[in-house]
C-alpha cells in the first residue's frame, strides 16, 4: 500500500461549509494523480469544540472528564462526516471512521489520552474499498472502546500515528501557515520561513507554546521515523517546512498567548506540581532561566488547577505571558504582563535577533 498518502487538515481549513468540497476536490485530485487512496485526518470547524464546551459547562460547571471527552470529540466527528459526504458529492468513494475504529488505542486518561498501541487493520480494511478514508483528529478509544480525547490540536498526533501504523515514511500537515517560522507570522510581520527543522527543535518550540505542531506528534514522528511535511491548506497547497532528524540549528522567537502561568512556594513544590499534571496528561514546563517556582501550562484545554487541588498542592495563579528566544539548544524566556506587551517584546527580540543584538538589556526593561 505504498501509494497511500496521509493528509491532515486543521480547523482553519474549514472556515466555510464550502471548504469541505474544496478539500474533497483536492483529495480526489491526489487519488487520480497517484492512483492510490488517501487518508484524511480532520479537525472541527473553528469554534465548534468551544461551543460544545460552553454547552457542557452550562449543564454542569464541574463536568466529569469522561463526559467532557465524550462530548468534545463529537466536533471532529462531525467534520469527518461532512468531508466524507463532500468527497461522495464530487464523485469519490469515501467513508468516515468512528473513533473506536481509527486504529488508535489509548489509555484511559480521558482528556489527554496517551497512545498505547496502533492497530492499522480497520484503516487498511476501509482503504481497500474507498478512495478517501476520513478520520476525526482528536478522538480515540481505550481498549474496551470507551471514547477518549488526545487533547487540543491532537489531529497532528492522529495523522502521524496513522501514517506510522500504515508503515508510511511521511505524513502531510495542512494548515493556514505552511510550516515553522522564525516567529508567528500572524504576530511578527517579518517572520521568516524555515525550510527544514529537526524533530527536537520542533518539539522544543511546541513545548514553549509555538503554534507549530502538536508536541507529542513530533515526538511520535521521531520515535517511529515518520517525516512530517507541512503544507498550506489553500490551493496550490504548497509545501513549507519539512520536519526530520537532521537540520541546521534555528533561531526563533515564541510568543505564547495561550498558556497558563502558575506559581508555587518553592522549586520542590513546582516539581511535584509538574509531576502531578503529567500524571493526568497535562504538559507543563519550568522555564529554565526564570524563577524555578513557576510553571507554564502550555495550551491546556483542561483546568490544570483541578489536578493540583486533587493532589493537595498549594499554588498561586500568575498573570503574564511567556515569550522565549530559542537559539539552537539555548532557550531564554521572559514573562510579559499582557498580550500586547508579549507581542511588543516578541517583535523586539525578533528584530534584535536578525541584527545580532538579542542580548540588549533595554529590550526587556520591565519584563520579568
How do the strands and helices of this protein lay out in sequence?
Elements: E1 5-9, H1 18-34, E2 38-42, H2 48-59, H3 65-72, H4 74-89, E3 94-96, E4 104-106, E5 115-118, H5 121-127, E6 132-136, E7 139-141, E8 147-149, H6 155-165, E9 170-175, E10 196-198, H7 199-207, H8 215-224, E11 227-232, E12 239-244, E13 251-256, E14 260-263, H9 267-279, E15 284-285, E16 294-297, H10 304-311, E17 316-318, E18 321-327, E19 330-336, H11 339-355
Parallel strand pairs: 1-2, 1-9, 2-6, 3-6, 9-11, 10-12
Antiparallel strand pairs: 4-5, 7-8, 11-12, 13-18, 14-16, 14-17, 15-16, 18-19
Shape: globular
Low-confidence stretches: 358-368
Q: Give the assembly state of these chains.
A: single chain
Largest sheet: 8 strands, mixed
Estimated radius of gyration: 21 Å
Strand order of the largest sheet: 3-6-2-1-9-11-12-10
**Intertermini distance:** 53 Å
Question: Total helix count?
Answer: 11
Overall mean pLDDT: 89
Query: What is the SS-derived class?
Result: alpha/beta
Beta-sheet strand percentage? Answer: 15-25%
Helical amount: 25-40%
Number of strands: 19
Amino acid at each position: 500500500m505504498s501509494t497511500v498518502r496521509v493528509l491532515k487538515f486543521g480547523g482553519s481549513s474549514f472556515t466555510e461549509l464550502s471548504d469541505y468540497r474544496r478539500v474533497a476536490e483536492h483529495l480526489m485530485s491526489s487519488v487520480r494523480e497517484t492512483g492510490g487512496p488517501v487518508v484524511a485526518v480532520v479537525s472541527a470547524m473553528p469554534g465548534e469544540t468551544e461551543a460544545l464546551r460552553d454547552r457542557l459547562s452550562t449543564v454542569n460547571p464541574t463536568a466529569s472528564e469522561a463526559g467532557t471527552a465524550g462530548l468534545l470529540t463529537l466536533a471532529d466527528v462531525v467534520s469527518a462526516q461532512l468531508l466524507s459526504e463532500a468527497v461522495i458529492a464530487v464523485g469519490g468513494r469515501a467513508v468516515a471512521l468512528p473513533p473506536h475504529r481509527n486504529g488508535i488505542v489509548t489509555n484511559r486518561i480521558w482528556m489527554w489520552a496517551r497512545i498505547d498501541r496502533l492497530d492499522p487493520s480497520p484503516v487498511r480494511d476501509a482503504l481497500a474499498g474507498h478512495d478517501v478514508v476520513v478520520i476525526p483528529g482528536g478522538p480515540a478509544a481505550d481498549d474496551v472502546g470507551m471514547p477518549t480525547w488526545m487533547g487540543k490540536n491532537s489531529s497532528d498526533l492522529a495523522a502521524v500515528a496513522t501514517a506510522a501504523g500504515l508503515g508510511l515514511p511521511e505524513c502531510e500537515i495542512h494548515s493556514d501557515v505552511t510550516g515553522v517560522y522564525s516567529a508567528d507570522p500572524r504576530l511578527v510581520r517579518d517572520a521568516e520561513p524555515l525550510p527544514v527543522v529537526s524533530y527536537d527543535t520542533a518539539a522544543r518550540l511546541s513545548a514553549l507554546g509555538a503554534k507549530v505542531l502538536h508536541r507529542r506528534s513530533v515526538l511520535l514522528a521521531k520515535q517511529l521515523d515518520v517525516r512530517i511535511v507541512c503544507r498550506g491548506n489553500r490551493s496550490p497547497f504548497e509545501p513549507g517546512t519539512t520536519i526530520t532528524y537532521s537540520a541546521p540549528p534555528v533561531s526563533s522567537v515564541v510568543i505564547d498567548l495561550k498558556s497558563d502561568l502558575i506559581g508555587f512556594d518553592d522549586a520542590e513544590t513546582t516539581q511535584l506540581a509538574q509531576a502531578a499534571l503529567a500524571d493526568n496528561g497535562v504538559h507543563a514546563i519550568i522555564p529554565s532561566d526564570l524563577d524555578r517556582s513557576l510553571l507554564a501550562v502550555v495550551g491546556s484545554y483542561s483546568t490544570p488547577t483541578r489536578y493540583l487541588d486533587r493532589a493537595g498542592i498549594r499554588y498561586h495563579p500568575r498573570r503574564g505571558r511567556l515569550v522565549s528566544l530559542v537559539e539552537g539548544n539555548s532557550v531564554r524566556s521572559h514573562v510579559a504582563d499582557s498580550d500586547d506587551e508579549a507581542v511588543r517584546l516578541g517583535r523586539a527580540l525578533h528584530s534584535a535577533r536578525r541584527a545580532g543584538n538579542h542580548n540588549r538589556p533595554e529590550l526587556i526593561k520591565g519584563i520579568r
